[in-house]
Specification:
Structural class: alpha/beta
Radius of gyration: 20 Å
Shape: elongated
Low-confidence stretches: 1-34
Oligomer: single chain
Helix content: 10-25%
Mean pLDDT: 82
Order of helices and strands: EEEEHEEEEHE
Distance between the termini: 52 Å
Strand order of the largest sheet: 4-6-7-8
Number of strands: 9
Number of domains: 1
Largest sheet: 4 strands, mixed
């Protein structure tokens, strides 16, 4: 199947993300596409840093064509990183800067080969995979002694969409992938920050 955003299907959606599984059941009336979905990290504690400034740099390929699909949505892996930095990093120092460089941020769609024989009329199989990725680097340079710290983080989420899924359910699959991706990124970054940059984290 070409782009899942070009067709209309009916049924249930099942999403597998990382090592877990997210299941979204179809309703009698499918919900409207969640284009206004809000994703924040405000429920997570703030990480105070002994720096004066924090910036997020978009250093990734924006894309804009198939098999990339993130450009079709207002919420993207890159916007997740911006939101994460805004909600979780708080500069409280007098000098220095922490930079969050987004090196890769995308959601890619791939089609699966499915059985198109007679028995396929009675089976509902996954026909599409979404793979969401964030690769980022967080850097800090000590202006006093020239010392530097750097944290590299990679986060991924994978979603399988069943061929019977509606367009709305496929939209929900995209946002489910983003939600799982954001949680994976958040966990990975905090672990690395507290290990590598603990000297500039203010209790």
């Amino acid at each position: 199947m070409q782009g899942w955003y070009q067709g209309w299907y009916k049924g249930t959606l099942k999403a597998a993300a990382l090592s877990g599984v997210i299941a979204i059941s179809a309703c009698a009336t499918p919900p409207a596409p969640t284009t206004a979905l809000e994703m924040t990290f405000q429920h997570r504690p703030v990480i105070s840093l002994n720096v004066a400034r924090m910036e997020v740099v978009d250093a990734y390929d924006i894309g804009g064509s198939f098999p990339r699909v993130d450009h079709l949505y207002t919420k993207t892996p890159a916007s997740l990183v911006h939101q994460w930095a805004q909600d979780r990093l708080k500069p409280v120092g007098q000098m220095g800067q922490v930079s969050v460089l987004i090196q890769e941020a995308k959601v890619v769609e791939t089609s699966r080969l499915i059985d198109k024989g007679f028995l396929s009329l009675f089976n509902d199989e996954p026909d599409t995979d979404l793979t969401a990725t964030i690769t980022a680097r967080i850097e800090f340079v000590n202006v006093l002694d020239g010392g530097s710290y750097a944290v590299d983080v990679n986060a991924h989420a994978n979603v399988a969409i069943f061929e019977s899924a509606t367009l709305n359910e496929r939209d929900l699959a995209y946002y489910s992938a983003l939600e799982t991706l954001g949680a994976a990124f958040d966990e990975a970054v905090e672990k690395e920050l507290r290990s590598v940059m603990k000297a500039i984290i203010v209790p």
